[in-house]
C-alpha cells in the first residue's frame, strides 16, 4: 500500500500461490482511514469494496470485464494505481 505520492505505507508478504485479495484486510488494517483506495481489476470483489467502505474509504476498482453490471472508475484516478509498481 502506498500513499498518493507512491511512498510506502504498509507491506505484507503472502505465499506465492495465494491470491492478492487475501492481503487486502491486513493492508487496510495498517491504515486507520484509507480514503480513496485505487486498485486494478484483480481486486474486484464485493467483500473488498464493503471492507473499504466499512473503514470509511472509497473504493475505485473497476469490475471484471465479464460481469453484467459494470462499475466505472475515473480514468485519471485509476492511472494512479501504478504508483505502487
Summarize the structure.
The protein is an alpha+beta fold and 85 residues long. It has one domain.
Structure description:
A two-stranded parallel ribbon has the order 1-2. The protein has helices spanning 24-29, 46-54, 75-79; strands at 36-38, 58-60. It is an alpha+beta fold. The longest helix has 9 residues, at 46-54. Strand 1 (36-38), helix 2 and strand 2 (58-60) form a beta-alpha-beta unit. It contains 3 helices and 2 strands. It has one domain (20-84).
Task: Give descriptors for this structure.
single chain, 85 residues, alpha+beta, 3 helices, 24% helix
The secondary structure category is alpha+beta
Residue runs with pLDDT of under 50 for 5 or more positions: none
Q: Quick check: average pLDDT? A: 87
Number of domains: 1
Radius of gyration: 13 Å
Largest beta sheet: strand ordering: 1-2
Termini, distance in Å?
10 Å
**DSSP helical segment count:** 3
Assign a percent range to the helix content: 10-25%
Amino acid at each position: 500500500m502506498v500513499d498518493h505520492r507512491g511512498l510506502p505505507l504498509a507491506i505484507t508478504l503472502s505465499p506465492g500461490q495465494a491470491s492478492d485479495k487475501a492481503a487486502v484486510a491486513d493492508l487496510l488494517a495498517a491504515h486507520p482511514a484509507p480514503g480513496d483506495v485505487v486498485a486494478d481489476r484483480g481486486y474486484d470483489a464485493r467483500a473488498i469494496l464493503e471492507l473499504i467502505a466499512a473503514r470509511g474509504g472509497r473504493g475505485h476498482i473497476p469490475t471484471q470485464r465479464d460481469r453484467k453490471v459494470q462499475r466505472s472508475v475515473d480514468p485519471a484516478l485509476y492511472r494512479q494505481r501504478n504508483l505502487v509498481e
